[in-house]
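Appendix B. One record, verbatim.
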Amino acid sequence: MKLLFEIGMEEIPARFLKQALEDLKNNLEKKLTENRISFEEIKTFGTPRRLILCSEISEIQAELNELNMGPSKEIAFKDGVLTKAGLGFVKAQGVDEKNIEIVKTEKGEYIAVRKYSEAGQTKKVLPEILKSLVLELTFPKSMKWADKTLRFARPIEWFLALFGKEIVEFEVEGLKSSNTSKGHRFFGKDFKVTDVEEYFEKIRENNVIIDIDERKKLVEELIGKFLSEDEQVIIDKDLLDEVTNLVEYPYPIIGTFSEEFLEVPQEVLIISMQVHQRYFPILNKQGKLLPKFVVIRNGIDYSENVKKGNEKVLSARLSDARFFYHEDLKIPLDNNVEKLKTVVFQKDLGTIYAKMKRSEKIAVYLVDKLGYNSKKEDILRTVRLAKADLVSNMIGEKEFTKLQGFMGADYALKLGENDNVSLGIKEHYYPRFQGDLLPSGIEGIIAGISDRIDTLVGCFGVGLIPTGSKDPFALRRAALGIVNIIIASNISVSLKELVNVSLDALEADGVLKVERVKTETDVLEFFKQRIINVLSDMKYPKDIILSVVDRDADDIINCLEKVKVIVEYSRKDDFKKLLQTIKRVGNISKDNKDDEVNEKLFQNEYEKSLWKKSNELTKMVDKLLIQKDYTEYLDAVLGMANDIDKYFENTIVMDENKEVKYNRINQMTYLTKIFTKMAYLNNLD
């Protein structure tokens, strides 16, 4: 039989809706299970004014007949009296001592409690279940109203609760459940239903679309119908979700604004429409913003008053944006840089200005290391101006914080900086999230790395290390950004050197609190996990990634090249033979650190031959690794396989003579160190 439960209320914030429905569903599933009521999929529906659950559930509870075993009789009783263990079991089962049974098993006698309940009618327990769903539902922010003690997102106005054709009767602080619901606030009316199917018919008749996905699809479809052939709408996913959960029936209305506002960068106007007003901007097919927008009305038809009201509000918003923009263009960016001395980045790490000066030192190192001296002036100018827009009217007033970097780039260009510096200011924020754009110019690349490494090392250096889901300074994102930038830009740089340059700058500022060596170790380990994550996202095998990164993760480009070579080499027929050889040698030398070999203890020609070739191999692979010729390195290691096989065929490593035995183990250790110079190949599956 179908259960339908609707909580009707004043409009709740759009961001509360999805989680509230998820919590209601999970809680209902839990309570039905606890009450031995079988059920099919619980469907959820919702609008700003209602939270709805619907499911086919059993009319009869399942019979309960279970035996719960406790501790052994010896542990549960002492001198005929229950011990703490026995009492704890009884208490946990919620029964009296008289309910204890002694059960004989193959392992001995144990105490147990048998729980039995006859099959009951579901409708008898549903009132308490539904009432508890209301009382236990929580929101990010709740309120009380009138004389109620109940806290909820917004005042509750009605409960509709049906089980088949019967009302599930319960009451919460004077508000009783019924078979009555309400339609659209402006285009519907109150209505009664006799069963669940009738509810779904009448709610639609009263101009409420309760299915969130259907409502979202309708928003997109209706917007498309109002556009001309040469127009397109920016439909931001998050905005679409929000607007969908602000209305019960969507109706798009096209509004306009004065063309004079188009002198402001269109990104500013778009942010103002999307973030502040929840409008969808309209562009032409070439991507240029038109003086038009779409507002979604909570209604079923056009309203001139709604159109004019929204146009008036937007005009005021855009006037503010234009004013901020023109005021900002009156101030040289170097003046803004000086203002950064008053803006705190983090209480232990000083101001944004101090952070910028540290980033300059890091940038100088990167310029020299990577050989970009011809672009040094532009790169350092980019670093200096990268945060200048933070104290601009546009960003500082908290109205357009999403445009950090973009506004700085625009101001820089209009105030006389060259194209490279302007682009670098914008791009030093890239990537802002996983999958975002990456900086294309060296100015943005070096400025972005310098800024992020200062943040990362600085926070670790004052003890601000991410734990669990807590990462207030987005250090994981900063490290991932560095890794992705380095890979995309093909920059070969030592992470250890980079971290130490940052540590030098922090020490020079006198802000380093954590021991330097510990900070370095922790940051490099943090980087290691981010490298593993990025390479895993690139679909390389995890065991190969770990074999490389665990061996040496200092140069990310070098790591990636090794991974690529091993992946390619693993497709060869001889690769299994190579691994078998390496593993066999590695297993013998496991946990042995000594690789000193005494040639005088050799007992046969195979030992002598292998030792000679091992020394030759050492010189060869060292040269190949310096040249980064990893394929040749693997070929050289594979070339030892036959010699090693012959060695094992004619030599017993675990000789009775201890000196001989350990000399042979040391020889295997020597080989293992050769085989793991590039990666821990002995750890591959």
